[in-house]
Amino acid sequence: xxxxxxxxxxxxxxxxxxxxxxxxxxxxxxxxxxxxxxxxxxxxxxxxxxxxxxxxxxxxxxxxxxxxxxxxxxxxxxxxxxxxxxxxxxxxxxxxxxxxxxxxxxxxxxxxxxxxxxxxxxxxxxxxxxxxxxxxxxxxxxxxxxxxxxxxxxxxxxxxxxxxxxxxxxxxxxxxxxxxxxxxxxxxxxxxxxxxx
Length: 197
Prior knowledge:
Elements: E1 6-8, H1 14-24, E2 48-58, H2 60-71, E3 81-84, E4 95-102, E5 105-118, E6 122-129, E7 135-145, E8 151-162, H3 165-169, H4 171-196
Antiparallel strand pairs: 1-5, 2-8, 3-4, 4-5, 5-6, 6-7, 7-8
């Protein structure tokens, strides 16, 4: 059971998610190039690569609010998708469950934080897939503040390919969901910034 994403007709309970994370935490990553989102040239061949970047606002307050948003996993609070638990600290080796609803079913996926960036003008983290994930690959969520303009941007860099048989069969649908996630994640971060203003 611990080597595949779980699929259910109902949203998993907190107890089920807690057990899922406990089972996944010590398992190895499922892909080549762990940490490759830190250097795009290192991304292995054979993976789809996706990028997204948006502006969030200017000044110290915008950067601080965006950082708080990432720390609270706001980029995953999308209605149809969420990170669990939202209190998962942004630090190396933490494991999180990503729960998503698609086509009337709930998919639970496991990922572990590979590295964290915490600098004066940059904050973010990358997580990589574990055996309990329908895909294999890595995703970076990054905030960057331009020192000259003060503009804070939010970007995603990801590389992935299907792992679960259903993800392979339904690849076009999975790719649409990945695009939807990037779009909705950007909108969620923009909403968060506006709420903090």
